[in-house]
Write a structure and sequence with these properties.
The structure is a homodimer of 213-residue chains. Chain A is an alpha/beta fold. Chain A has two domains: 70 residues, Winged helix-like DNA-binding domain superfamily/Winged helix DNA-binding domain (Arc Repressor Mutant, subunit A); 113 residues, Rossmann fold, CATH 3.40.50. In chain A, strands 5-6-4-3-7-8-9 form a seven-stranded mixed sheet. A two-stranded antiparallel sheet of chain A has the order 1-2. The longest helix of chain A has 19 residues. Chains A and B meet through helix 1, helix 5, strand 9 and helix 9 of A and helix 1, helix 5, strand 9 and helix 9 of B.
Chain lengths: 213, 213
């Protein structure tokens, strides 16, 4: 008998809210609370309690009728659901200002993201380390990714170099790409692409500012 | 007679796609093209041509039946719609690794974002400059924002300090806040809040990786 893993794709808005729950729960825990209701979470985050309960349902954590959720348990449940309870080794390509900031942003470690190698085409950078992570030449990506069985690649190179870097990552067996380059990357269907494009966020900000003005 | 400006709020997915059109159009222009059809844009971006035409309709730019859009005109139209065709002076609070990267990320200048002052509580940083932008004490935000008529504030401080910084910005008359701190900020209703929370993007990435595995 074959056991086939089937996961329903979690709605993206739910996935984007889950880290915000974690931030709030951490704060409540620091305040000395051990339990919290969906109503309190909803109030704090300006959401509907039904929405909160639905989101949390995806993670498999259940609350109790009167007291609500155990905070510790809920944090653990959400982090587990997001694969943040284990080390996710990752490559990062592009050690400019954004790449360097990403490497130095220690908060990501709390979420399991662990940069094991960085890549750049600048001969002055290759062979050195940034925030204790060694820098290699871009063309070393496929070989090293295969050898180290890396699944996550982060792209912080300029737009013109992004597709080449992505192709190298795919050739090395990388399965999920976090793209910070301001360009649409083309990937095979079985690879996850998440665009963290700051210009998209800026577009919402500047247009909304105009609309309220 | 009163003239009241009324703008329908543009759908957020449209706003998030517009910068991607600009990136593509810039690339096509470099390739030597002067005109482009909605079908070509749609193919390149893996969208439906109807969706592309709808998005562009918001900006007020119109295409011609056979040749499509003039590329130059379309770039100009989108940038104008997003207020990227003028200088948007901004404050940034928090000169850690992320704040420093944001100040050094010259691409934002292309989109009109112009950092005129940075703020931090670190006495060693106050009075110095980063990427040519002067650093002041956090409590100087309200006064300076009022004097300089700043409308945009960027928050790159740690979570625990974010609300205080936001309150200072509001007190100074800032109308749009771009928040990078991993916390939900509470703001008056007439202020625009755009959360550029990297952890939300990471959540989508790591969960999707698990779901395809």
């Amino acid at each position: 008998m074959n056991l086939i893993k089937t996961y329903k794709a979690t709605p993206e808005p739910t996935l984007r809210r889950l880290p915000r729950y974690v931030h709030l729960l951490n704060k409540l825990r620091l305040d000395g609370l051990t339990e919290v209701s969906s109503t309190i979470i909803a109030n704090e985050m300006n959401l509907d309690p039904t929405q909160v309960r639905k989101d949390i349902e995806y993670t498999g954590v259940t609350g109790k009728p009167k007291t609500g959720y155990n905070i510790e348990e809920l944090i653990k449940g959400i982090k587990g659901f997001l694969s943040w309870n284990k080390i996710n080794d990752a490559f990062i390509a592009g050690v400019g200002s954004l790449g360097t900031a990403m490497l130095g942003y220690t908060r990501f470690k709390e979420y399991g993201l662990n940069y094991v190698a960085a890549f750049d085409n600048d001969q002055m950078k290759i062979g050195t380390k940034v925030h204790n992570v060694p820098i290699f030449s871009i063309d070393k990506i496929p070989d090293l990714a295969k050898k180290m069985k890396i699944k996550i690649g982060v792209i912080t190179v300029p737009a013109f170099a992004a597709q080449t870097v992505a192709d190298h990552m795919i050739a090395g067996g990388i399965k999920a790409i976090w793209n910070f380059a301001p360009i649409q990357i083309k990937l095979p269907e079985n690879v996850v692409l998440e665009n963290a494009q700051l210009t998209q966020s800026l577009a919402v900000l500047t247009r909304r500012l105009f609309e309220i003005d």
